[in-house]
Amino acid sequence: MKKAVLFSLWGGVVTPHLSQTFQKFEESAGISRGFIKNVIAKLGSENALYCLEKGKVTLTQMIPEFEAECQKVAADQGLSLPAQFSAQKLFSDVGQVEFNKPVLDAAAVLRRHGIATCVLANIWVDDTDQRDGVARILSVLECRFDLVVRSCYAGVRIPEPDIFTNALEKLAVKPQEAVWLDVDEESVKAAGVLGMTAVQVKDITEALKEIQNLTGIEVTSDLQPPSCDPENVSHGYVNIKPGVRIHYVDMGDGPPVLLCHGFPESWFSWRYQIPALADAGFRVLALDMKGYGDTTAPPDIEEYSQEQIMLVSKTNPCKFIGIPQVTLVGHDWGGALVWNMAQFHSERVRAVASLNTPLFPVDPKTNPMEKLKAMPIFDYQIYFQKPGVAEAELEKNLKRTFKLMFIASNETVYLSVPKASPNQLDCGLFVGSPDDPARSAILSESALQCYVQQFTKSGFRGPLNWYRNGERNWRWMCSRPRGKIMMPALMVTAGKDPVLLPAFATGMENLVRQHLCYSSIMLMPAELNKILISWLKETHQKASIPVHPKL
Amino acid sequence: MKKAVLFSLWGGVVTPHLSQTFQKFEESAGISRGFIKNVIAKLGSENALYCLEKGKVTLTQMIPEFEAECQKVAADQGLSLPAQFSAQKLFSDVGQVEFNKPVLDAAAVLRRHGIATCVLANIWVDDTDQRDGVARILSVLECRFDLVVRSCYAGVRIPEPDIFTNALEKLAVKPQEAVWLDVDEESVKAAGVLGMTAVQVKDITEALKEIQNLTGIEVTSDLQPPSCDPENVSHGYVNIKPGVRIHYVDMGDGPPVLLCHGFPESWFSWRYQIPALADAGFRVLALDMKGYGDTTAPPDIEEYSQEQIMLVSKTNPCKFIGIPQVTLVGHDWGGALVWNMAQFHSERVRAVASLNTPLFPVDPKTNPMEKLKAMPIFDYQIYFQKPGVAEAELEKNLKRTFKLMFIASNETVYLSVPKASPNQLDCGLFVGSPDDPARSAILSESALQCYVQQFTKSGFRGPLNWYRNGERNWRWMCSRPRGKIMMPALMVTAGKDPVLLPAFATGMENLVRQHLCYSSIMLMPAELNKILISWLKETHQKASIPVHPKL
């Protein structure tokens, strides 16, 4: 079986074929179509481009030489190059090339299934003022592939055998265990000679099918957005007051977006959003909320009132990290929090998005706990009220807890809503559930392990305490000014959520001015990313805040 | 003695008097000068502005009411307000107010000397589209003062006594231990009644002198930029390969700037730069370099070659944090590194600045170790070559080591350059130095403790290994393409540096294209910040990258 897949960067594998880039360049430079291809084809064995790719010179050093070669080819054709001809512009155009999205997706699937992924790139040291294009390409490749080999560092270029053998050595795989994909016939031959399985790419869909056959992994259908490996992301820690520390995961460069998870989750619950939002040009900060994971979990119930939690969240991104304004995205309890932040700390919030949790109106006349009791859908929240009871059940077997709680909407639900008094022994969420339930299709073994590890430290007391401030939150909110939310807001409802029903969002237009409501039946990661990114881009564009997407 | 100083936000204390803001507003709105002051003066006890400040309504809710009050005052004067009159614009203008820099500086000095600092602010919940002005004000205040009390959260406004007593309670000081500064006579009276020492500000310089008399702290002359408290900054950690973790301090929002320290230092060596650059609108990432502090310190010498260290630094900000391009600032060995990064990983570097360390030309004919031996100024580097020798001396008494090494240029130098063979017992940097040398004026006791703690973990082996790759670095650099550095570059020389002499920077114009050289005799933190910020702003402006300074 294959253990590694190596991709060629240019020309139709990781990036689309450069012929379009060349053609546009030729048009804008006023030279005949096919000229650049012609120059490259005529290059000898020790030409300027090869020296560049092998790192003997930098791009700035090489450009005059390349221009000279172009002049020569033109002269041979009896032509002279127009004044506006600029090899610098040609290389800068190449740096602006897009990615072949299906190939990036396929590489992500391979990686998730334990196949090592590698890009070999005939790419130079770009020291020109237009080097940000190459910087963007490298940044994406380094995030998406296990190994990136640049010819200018290796000192050898494709199709030289050493570039393959060097890469295989670093990947610790034998040639027979590796697949090579390129458009170029020569490199396919060279890889074949070494013993690799080489696929010459003519049509990318066909090539990906061949990868599927060779690896046995469905690289074109098993699509999920890239995830985060907790071992390989940047973890931030900040003390917001003596003895209280906030943990967050931090990725990307651009306007900040703060992700606030719900019950009973983790920063890790955003694993499919973090890389996607970072690639879209945002700096993503995914918090462990108060009481969770590596964030401090004080024992007292009062510490988990919305007022107290907002002090934490407000001072986290702002006071110590020194960010004046963030966009907030919350889910479940995190959704309730971001609506409150948008209302009571509006200065620090650029825009607000909530998943599943609508903004509820505050009724100063009715204690919300009375309302809860009248709605059987919220019985579990009544069960959560008595300290220690739900903790005991949920902490008993963490693995079982998460297997029972994280399921897809088409899988068997074992959770029961406890009708009985919380003092009765047979009462609980998991009464009658199997001791060793099946793990959901949406929860990988490593994700399950991650949740178990996250809750081993502080358990469920802090997380459950979020539910134990209903009356306190209500009284506090009644005491605060509560106007319409004026900032851009996004509400995403999920049709299959059995508790936070889409119907609860009805009437939100009375509470939020710039309200965008998106309803989904099955809120899958790829769909959610698309919604969030499109809303984030539009919101920042309207506010004239530049965003530089990498993908 | 006084334990706390409380400042009023508006009107001539932390911000300049708003009369200028009002005047400009009146001019642009086409209303008579003094109108706004007049409206405010005529407000009754339960007026719209007071309700806003006390958090009974948000700014959006209050604006129509305030406009009605303005209409009323205008009508009383027999006038009608022009069509372009907008109370929203008035509040937005207020949010754009600058800070009184001397007051911020004075507050920083007080804080450094252990006096609690607090701002009381009659400030509202700003939920308008122009709320980023207030966000910026709050972000600066929260970074610079120990406590910020907003009237809209406290439910009381200055001069109500409760706002003072609430603040004193939070600061845990008695009224007699606190000083209050305001322009407003009423608030000065109110604070006086409570037993506080109240200073009515007429001239800010005079007021600061009075603070000086009351606290005994020279708030106007002992000026240093604000520093970082390691306990109160955000710490980032990222694994760049199995078993190798990078630690960095992260502050601010904006284009990223990566700070690389020298020998034998720490992220903490940038403590006076981090808040200043963050306030100037940049995201600052201050690394613990390989071998230092909370970054992993592998034992092998080879791990500290420039090639290997660059792999660390390159992948740190880029690969896992997902930042495509950063501006690099390096000092001492960090300076050597950033020049190499600019040359060999130019794509990922937006611009490069080096303090003290010039870019040296590479001479492929002469082994640099031979050159070193010929220059007595570098004898200490010869002494550092033999593994274990300098480690033993430097690690023997960390406190003494840092007291001997971190000194101002006008203080006694005890370091000797060892002439003898490293095998001789009487050879060393500290031979003949006092056992308990005085601590330098530039090194506070807490800073000394911080350095000791940073080096307790990994000692000096890693840091010294940076010096043990001279030949390896040379060979490697000779093998790489080495063009002129094409990106914007800043070289700062320090006249009092006894080793990295300013003269070494001569001829750098042959190696760097966009070269700006700044020479300083005494490179003090405030001067350095000014140089760096002005260069950073100019560099990013030229590249059309927006920067939003907070100060």
At a glance:
The structure is a homodimer of 551-residue chains. By secondary structure, chain A is α/β, with parallel strands linked by helices. Helices cover 40% and strands 15% of the residues of chain A.
What would you note in describing this structure?
The structure is a homodimer of 551-residue chains. With 551 residues, chain A is an alpha/beta fold. Chain A folds into three domains: 4-13 and 97-215, 3-Layer(aba) Sandwich (Rossmann fold); 17-94, Orthogonal Bundle (DNA polymerase, domain 1); 230-372 and 449-542, Alpha/Beta hydrolase fold, catalytic domain (Rossmann fold). In chain A, 40% of the residues lie in helices and 15% in strands. The first copy, chain A, has helices at 19-29, 35-42, 48-53, 59-76, 87-95, 101-112, 132-144, 151-154, 161-171, 185-194, 204-215, 274-279, 306-320, 333-344, 368-373, 379-383, 389-396, 398-405, 445-458, 461-465, 470-479, 525-542; strands at residues 4-8, 116-121, 147-150, 178-182, 197-200, 234-241, 244-251, 256-260, 283-287, 326-331, 349-355, 485-494, 512-520. In chain A, the strands form two sheets. Chain A has an eight-stranded mixed β-sheet, with helices on both faces. The first copy, chain A, has a five-stranded parallel β-sheet with strand order 3-2-1-4-5, sandwiched between helices. Chain A is elongated, with a radius of gyration of 28 Å. The model of chain A has no long low-confidence stretch (mean pLDDT 91). At the A-B interface, helix 7, strand 6, helix 12, helix 13 and strand 12 of A face helix 7, strand 6, helix 12, helix 13 and strand 12 of B. Strand 6 of chain A pairs antiparallel with strand 6 of chain B. Chains A, B: Its EC number is 3.1.3.76, 3.3.2.10. Chains A, B: Its cofactor is Mg(2+). Chains A, B: GO terms for molecular function: 10-hydroxy-9-(phosphonooxy)octadecanoate phosphatase activity; epoxide hydrolase activity; metal ion binding.
